[in-house]
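seq:
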Amino acid sequence: MQTAPQLLRTLAQLDPGDGLVLTVYLDLRPHRPGENPGVRAAHIFLRDRLREIEKTLLPRGQPLDDFRADAARVNRFFEEHAEPYLQGVALFACHRRQLFEVLETGVPFDDEVLLEPYPDLFQLARLADEHETAVVALVDTNTARIFVTRQGFLHEVGGPSVDSVFTRHRNTGGLNHKRYQRRVRNRRMDFAREMAAALEATVEHEGATRVILAGDEVAIPFLHRALPPKLEPLVSEQVLRLDIRTPSSDVHDEVTPLLAQIESDESHDVATRLIESVREQGLGVLGTQETKDALSHGQGDTLVLAEEAPIAAQERNELVHLATVSGAAVETVIDHASLAAAGGVGALLRYRPPWV
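struct:
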């Protein structure tokens, strides 16, 4: 299964054709605590929307036949995949283009079912932006656990460990004690280097863009000093104080709000940089048409969209499509007053437009 960024690129590069694409985003959380997870409000929403869309294609024709094939495949997916752990799912289906892509997530989507010439990419882009892949390193002085969090899920992927005989302080007295302490320190440093190497390999393998350090106050400084320079920009300044035996579910509960706060702070920084760039006639534009022009000409480096931007869903989707095809990042922003007042749409640029 593709990750959100991979699927976003795949769908943005979809060749145009005659067939319409069925886009489905659903919030699969139970409507009430304790409710049967197999029966969710999203399933009722999906059923009703499919019926509404089908009515618009009556009485007959190829679009109706294609839609019914796609709707049947979507319904079959939910009949065969009712995992209670899922919080959200995104599906993209087009019988004519032989397209059927599914993304299962640990975070909910806003319920949405659309039939359009192109897949609707906004919620997928928002997921890719707000839930980047992160690696969590939970360490003490002789044991380490590594977790990967992606799309709302957290998985433990292992971690190195060493024998503890030389990693605990013992009072042996005199020179022997000093020699022992030095040996303990060297062993801890060796373990930190081993952990740093495992962490680097995991980040590279998973394509992670963030690293969270967690553990006790003795082990974290050793690990921090052992990290290779290329990991430093990815490491969060905030360290989580967790016991090495912390259950995975509790690690998830601690990491989730921290990552959300990091993403919120960074998105606000991007929006502020955009506003300042426009004020200084620098590398930034505001406005839907201006942003669309910049993205169309390959000038856009980052599309910046306020969640509350007053633009039509189709226009918003076109902006996300243009950004993805041109290799620009997509940054969604919540509650940034200056960006909202400026219309909520803009782009940071790779280079200045010729009219500046």
